[in-house]
From TrEMBL, chains A, B:
GO terms for biological process: tyrosine biosynthetic process. NCBIfam families: PRK07502.1 (NF005694). The keyword NAD applies. GO terms for molecular function: NAD+ binding; prephenate dehydrogenase (NAD+) activity; prephenate dehydrogenase (NADP+) activity. This is prephenate dehydrogenase. Keywords: Amino-acid biosynthesis, Aromatic amino acid biosynthesis, NAD, Oxidoreductase, Tyrosine biosynthesis. Pathway: Amino-acid biosynthesis; L-tyrosine biosynthesis; (4-hydroxyphenyl)pyruvate from prephenate (NAD(+) route): step 1/1.
Length: 302, 302
């Protein structure tokens, strides 16, 4: 038994188009409808035949859906939901893929009063954007965190969970506030730091931008990947998970100041001790299959 | 004509053992001698047959060399050089692979008065350490920066350059002070930031270490790779390139404070503008072949 038979995807960028591709492979009998506010994206999705139907309005897209997944930047969720609210079938489940969950739950609740909303967040992505960038295996062995609102219907939650399992994801349940703190440290702070350091490097006067690029293999290039992520998506993440991000940032700044002081005072033992314990975390990530065990992310050196 | 015929490598970790492997492939007639202060490393190098000879002392290792390359942590360079100073042939060239150059030039000059010292820095590596971690193609299409002292013999510089070209590297010449500022931003600051954030994440109370590992695919895992680098090597880099690192860190902190303020005040346009311009740097790195063009560093998603 498939968890859903008529799935509508609103927003067909990297994540939305990857869901479409994965549904096609894993649940080929599902009727897939897509909508994107950008006519060019709709055209691309049509050309690539990623959906059975590409609708001209989000209202038309949801009208007979049993699952609607919002795959738009988190700052656009409220408006996108309000747009199809009148046309949403009463028994349809609405979900999303947003990277901050408390704020998204609030705006979806406001835009869709009385609707069944089960927010989710597949922890997966690449630095690319748009419907051409998606691929079916994006969610394979990645975590999908579901943040059901209090009092959510367990059967509805289970259907959303089963949908993501079929796309290859592993499921975890979390309160939205806890999700936002966990992701603030595992995703949002790293992106902010990466965006910052790439900006700092490109502003230097006496070291040229071409030198920064040329010698980036010393470590810098790793940061440029996530600093190439979608600017709209990330602006919205920071604005909608402000408190948790600012708190993590404060802790990070304190730790950085401590290392800065150790360097200034020549405290080699403090540096060595700090640099030693961070190795264990990498080991844990490799052991749990959350990254490539090959050195240098498996980059080829030939 | 080979640039050297009897090469001695002092320190047989990731870089030293990679040089040995690469010399074997590119210049098979070169007589390779190795020495490492750690008897276990010497045993491994012997077992893997990475060198023609593994000497029991660095003095014995250099005694008939025409090139001696120091591949030890930068903080150990002075002592390592002093150890073989008495046995170094007068016409031998001494080079190194250290990540900070002004300080290394100073200590090598002190330890080896009158010797021909041509420092170099191959901008290449992985997060692994030790002789088992090396591989012959590590320097392929990577930059090797040579920082000749003032008045260096051009023929000696050219022989070191040719040696690295044969190992697959591209050559650049730089003043040691400029090298140290360029690498402070492209390598040292990124490592410091990565070590910091991984430490911050592992110290959190309400988000557990297992959650940090589990959801690391959201961005955090990228930082754990370079934060798994050799602690001794990196302690020494920060202590020997203190001024440039502290200056870059100051600029980074100012930029981070500006973004923090934009988040706190909800200035979405400022965030968007910043996140947009950092994309260009990534593009430059890909175009110049300094990173894998595939999304997500080419990680497999299957």
């Amino acid at each position: 038994m498939l968890p859903f038979s008529r799935v509508t995807i609103i927003g067909l960028g990297l994540i939305g188009s990857s869901i479409a591709r994965a549904v096609r492979l894993a649940m080929p009998t599902v009727r897939l409808t897509g909508y994107d506010a950008d006519p060019q994206v709709r055209e691309t999705v049509d050309r690539l035949q990623l959906c059975d139907d590409v609708a001209d309005s989000s209202g038309a897209a949801v009208i007979d859906a049993d699952l609607v997944i919002l795959c738009v930047p988190v700052g656009a969720m409220g408006a996108a939901a309000a747009e199809f609210a009148q046309d949403l079938p009463a028994d349809a489940i609405v979900s999303d893929v947003g990277s901050s969950k408390a704020e998204v739950a609030r705006v979806l609740g406001e835009a869709l009063p009385g609707a069944i909303v089960i927010p989710a967040h597949p922890v997966a992505g690449t630095e690319r954007s748009g419907p051409d960038a998606g691929f079916a295996s994006l969610f394979h062995k990645r975590w999908c965190i579901i943040t059901p609102p209090e009092g959510a219907n367990p059967a509805a939650v289970e259907r959303v969970a089963e949908f993501w399992r079929r796309l290859g994801a592993d499921i975890e349940m979390m309160a939205p506030e806890h999700h936002d703190r966990v992701l603030a440290v595992t995703s949002h702070l790293p992106h902010l730091i990466a965006y910052t350091i790439v900006g700092t490097a490109s502003d230097l006067e006496e070291v040229t931008q071409s030198e920064v690029i040329k010698y980036s293999a010393g470590g810098f290039r790793d940061f440029t990947r996530i600093a190439a992520s979608d600017p709209t998506m990330w602006r919205d993440v920071f604005l909608t998970n402000k408190d948790a991000v600012l708190d993590m940032l404060q802790r990070f700044s304190e730790d950085l100041t401590a290392l800065q002081r150790a360097i200034r005072l020549g405290k080699g033992d403090d540096l060595f001790e700090h640099f030693t314990r961070t190795r264990d975390i990498r080991r844990g990530i490799i052991e749990q299959g959350q990254d490539d065990p090959a050195p240098d992310f498996g980059r080829t050196h030939d």
